[in-house]
Specification:
This protein is α+β, with helices and mostly antiparallel strands. The chain has one domain: Hotdog Thioesterase (Thiol Ester Dehydrase, Chain A). The protein contains 3 helices and 5 strands; from the N terminus they run βααββββα. It has helices spanning about 25-40, 45-50, 125-130; strands at about 5-10, 55-65, 75-85, 90-95, 105-115. A hairpin with a 2-residue loop joins strand 3 and strand 4. It is elongated and about 45 Å long. The termini are close together.
Length: about 130
Amino acid sequence: MTKYVLPIRVYLEDTDAQGVVYNASYFRFMERARTECLRACGIDHDQLREEYGVVLVLSAIEARFRAPARLSDMLYVSADVAEARGARMRFAQAVRRNDAQGDVVCEGSAEVACMDARGKPRRIPEALMSELTQ
């Protein structure tokens, strides 16, 4: 399945007064990595809506915080398509410090649902499915 790693620098806006990354910042980092993972597969959110009439909606997310990340850390956020079938895809994600093989500071999973314009579940279009399962 598809694997992607996005490097992200921790900025002041991502941290609390002690320079430790806010828990919610990890969710933003993981969202960016999922979006870029799909983009690397040739899947663009605007294209999905315009050409296929579907949108991708986060339906579940979880995270386990292993160690704090701090101001100015260089983080490497992975997004691996672990499963794609029917109207859902599941991503396995990790946030690592210093390089793509570095210490894990946060790990998680996210489930994304494919929906039509009325908010009803719709199977992931076959053309997109083939891009995800390569």
